[in-house]
Amino acid sequence: MKRFIELCVLCGALSAQASGFYFGDNGAKAMIQGGAFTAQADDLTAMQHNPAGLTQLQGFSFLADLQVLRHDVSFLRQDPGFDPANPSGPVNPVRSNPAPFLLPFFAASYGFELGNRPFTVGLGLFAPPSQGKYEYPVPNYTKDANGKFVETPNKFAAQRYALISTNILIAYPTLSLAWAIHPRFQVGLSAQLTVSQFQQTQTMYGGDALGDNPQRQIAENPNYDATVSIDLPGQVGFTGILGVMARPTDWLSIGASVRPPIPFKARGKLTVALPEFFTNAGAKVNGDTATLTMTMPLEVKVGARATPIANLGINLDFVYQGWNSIDQLLLTPENVTLENGGMTSPIPPFGVKKNWMATWSVRLGASYKIIKYLSVSLGGLYETGAAPTSTYSVDWTHPSRFIFTGGLTGHLGPIDVIAGALFTPTNTTVVTDSIVSRGQTGDPAVYPPGVVGNGIYTSGGYGFIFGVRGNFGAVKPAAEPVKPAPAPAVEPAAS
């Protein structure tokens, strides 16, 4: 039983960190060009893409962007050893039902001359480029007059041991500084706080306490399900982004930026609703606080921008993300104990291997100014997935995929208005080698845990992109003082 509570507490916290990272990238102007922006970075989203680009913004600038994202996921769970060509079983596919997720970006800056070189200070607030909210079928434990489930959970909510719902909110309050140390070379730095909140719900299985250890979905007894919920506010952290930009010629710019790994620590409340068997036996959980620690990945961006003809810009980026930093997630309960049969025992720290992989993406985009008041942009990116199939689950549906984007920009004097869209085709991932197991009470050497990650996953989605930004011109140098007119020459008097 102690082992069961450990897993309830642990798994309730682990899934929440994985969902929704990443789904495209930030910034309306960047995303309608496939997210390729490192060597352009000529609006305030440079705070994230490449802070050095902020030197291009002199005078007062502002930006307000909003992406409306929907990441659609489905899962047809199967028992180990299934034939991918002939999936079977009395289990219905489950689908995520997320409300549209809003991804904002707000910023303002002021640029001026420092040492006869452009210098810019900016303030911003934005979130990581993710779909942070997922809702899967909630298991219905209602029974009819004959004691049978109205909707059998192992048929209508087969994903319940991995995830029911999750809601992740992360924000980066940012201060950016950029300086052109040479007319053709700029540097920039973004200093960021990390503010976060993690909420998640799933179920765990306790039937093996009675010797019930099903290896097939149809044999799982929902009477032994426990519901686990967490609400973990993240502790405020600190990170930063360093960027450089060079222009070897007037038609070519090169940029690069790096953000180091971000340590995250979340501490908050956990709730475990034990199954009826445990409560009837007098078991209960004391304490409701736990801490989760993990590290978000190193990110490196390198890009080039060419303007071969007037009004046409072409961007190419390479992005590396070190998701292999998520090798393990560690949960530490704080004074959480299990009380049963007059005995009280603490629940120790517990870690789970995820074995995620570093990812990379190639991004290509272009923008062409059709007329004075209108530009059109197109782009696309290809990125590799982070989770191997052995640990793939509905809490981390990030396959290798293409994302296609495009949009229009209206130029209204100092104001630009952007509207666009992004789309990723549905990708199917068949998992037959899953090691994702159902949490349970028994000794794995005696009762091999049931594997719940095998099956057929689909992942796709779309989004809409909106943005407004304005730049109100460079600071003009103060007028030089008017020099007094020279006195007229006095001719010598005639002698």
Short descriptors:
three-stranded antiparallel β-sheet; 495 residues; 14-stranded antiparallel beta barrel; mainly beta; elongated; Porin; disordered N terminus
Describe this structure in words.
The chain has a single domain, classed as Porin, CATH 2.40.160. It has 495 residues and is mainly β. Helix content is 7%, strand content 50%. The N terminus is likely disordered. The protein has a 14-stranded antiparallel barrel with strand order 1-3-4-6-7-8-9-13-14-19-20-21-22-23. It has a 3-stranded antiparallel beta sheet with strand order 11-16-17, with no helix packed on it.
- Overall, the morphology is elongated
What fraction of the residues are assigned to beta strands by DSSP? over 45%
Q: Could you give the count of β-strands?
A: 23
- Derived from helix and strand composition plus strand pairing, the structural class reads mainly beta
Rg result: 28 Å
Mean pLDDT: 85
Number of domains: 1
Number of continuous helical runs: 5
- CATH class division: Mainly Beta
End-to-end separation in angstroms reads: 125 Å
- Please give the largest β-sheet: 14 strands, antiparallel, barrel
Q: Write out the CATH superfamily name.
A: Outer membrane protein transport protein (OMPP1/FadL/TodX)
Spatial ordering of strands, largest sheet: 1-3-4-6-7-8-9-13-14-19-20-21-22-23
- CATH-defined fold name: Porin
State the order of secondary-structure elements, H for helix, E for strand: HHHEEEEEHEEEEEHEEEEEEEEEEEEE
Q: Give the second-level CATH assignment, the architecture.
A: Beta Barrel
Query: Which spans of ≥5 residues are poorly predicted at pLDDT below 50?
Result: 1-20, 475-483
**Portion of residues in helices?**
under 10%
